[in-house]
Amino acid sequence: MQNPFWTRDATYALKLQQQPKDWFTWTFITSYLLDEEADLNDPDTLGSTNFIDKKDGVVATLPRYQNLNSTLELQIQKGKFDGNLLVGFSHSKPDPCYVFNSVAGNQGISPIAMKTANSYAVKARIDLNGLASGFDLRMEYFNIGEDWTSTFGARREQDVLLTDGFLDGQLPTLNIANEFIDFRDPFYESIVGWHGGTIAPKLTKGSLEAELEFTFLEYNTDKQDRCTGNAITDKDGNPLASQVCPQDPTTGKYYGVYPTFLYPDGMTDTEFFSYANTNDRGRDPRSVYKQNQARRSFITMARLAYQFGIGRGLKWDTKVKFIRDTDMRSTQVAEDDYTGNLLFAKTQASMQLTDELSASLGFKLAWWDEKHRSGAIVAGKADYPDYKTLKTNLFYELKYQFGGATLAWYMEWLNKDVSVARAGIKDERMSYAYKNVVRGIGTIQANF
Q: What is the 8-class DSSP label of residue 160?
């Protein structure tokens, strides 16, 4: 490896697992990511300007980036009790001499905080099954540190929390892979910095299923004057943030430490999502850091499903979710305080028509009332308009299964109306609507 533009990257992993009792299992997993490149000061490196030291035929390498993740998981299953405890440690260390600061600008393919950071993660879950006839109770506590960094973990394959969340799935990483999916695939969000708990009772009685969820969230990422993106400076180029941002020794410019992903405000619109933000999609699911944040959230969910004895089986499934999301943002400015009342509802009927063919028909509704959704402070004055969003979605799906193959056809009809107002007066220029959007997708899946 003589060429300084060549890199040598590797990830090392270790997993240890033991079941000392039939009801108890422990699992220890560690992964270490090492990103190396040739040392430019080594005389053996191609293009090196070091003509003083003698060549020894070996090119030294330097660690450009290192990331360590270790977790210990304890699992207990005994009678009606099912308990799980997971504790984790992460270490992230970029070398500023060799890592380009992607926090400012495009945010980078592997976004990280531009500093050496150690952090923690804790998740504890208890399932009490069969407390009464058909009644189960699930409880979970989670606490993910503000600097938790996992560049080699799951990006879409898992959903690590019990809560229904804001979107479809939750993962403790900034490397959420929502880029290359179709409009039917689930959306994942980063839970870095989440701290809270969930209580979720469930009742099953014959053909009836009923679920509830209550989740409280606060955020370890709450901070004032966090150094994010391009550091905000005064007319002399000095950073305004009380947490002084680092300075580039070459250009003398100050730069950010934490990535913001450019769009940190408002509820994410997964129906009309685009990374170019051409559809005003709201917050990026990876955006967990803001310059100013003082946030609290409440998530409530109710689900009811019933299996009717009609034909080969008709199932009706309905879920309603309400989220109260608040953020004071700057504690020095009242006019930028965010309040989001977010309602989601979905009802669907599905039926097995033949041994191979099934069909479903459903309706979705989303209504969001967001005070001071997004904006900026200009010349000392906060300009954060209010948004009201109404979305309706009628859909159907046909599935044909034979052997290990599944053919599916999905169609939907969408309407979206966004009303933007300042001081109670509608802003016609910013308000917009998408009417009669019809789209469909066919898929073929084979399992071997």
A: -
Closest listed residue to residue 200, CA positions, set 302, 124, 298: 302
Q: For residue range 317-358, list pLDDT tens digits in order.
A: 999 999 999 999 999 888 999 999 999 999 999 999 998 999
Non-local (6+) Cβ contacts of 328 within 8 A are 294, 295, 337, 338
Task: Give which of 260, 271, 170 is closest to 217, Cα–Cα.
Answer: 170
Distance CA 3, CA 9 (A): 15
Angstrom distance (rounded) from CA 198 to CA 214: 6
Residues 61 and 50: their CA atoms lie apart, in Å, by 15
108-152-281 Cα angle (round to 5)? 45
Token pair in block for residue 145: 């540190």
- Secondary structure (H, E, C), 286-309: CCCCCCCECEEEEEEEEEEEEEEC
Number of neighbouring beta carbons within 10 Å of residue 54: 8
Radius of gyration of the chain (CA): 25
The SS3 assignment for 102 reads: coil
Q: Which of the residue ranges 36-45, 64-73, 127-136, 307-316 would you say has the lowest mean pLDDT?
A: 36-45
The domain limits of the chain are 7-446
- Cα separation, 140 vs 294, whole angstroms: 23
How far is residue 249's CA from residue 406's CA, in Å, rounded to a whole number? 58
DSSP 55: P
Task: For residue range 95-116, list pLDDT tens digits in order.
Answer: 877 776 665 554 545 688 888 9
CB 301 within 8 A of CB 212: yes
Which residues on neighbouring strands pair with residue 327, listed in sequence order? Answer: 295, 338
Contact between 228 and 245 under an 8 Å Cβ cutoff? The reply is no
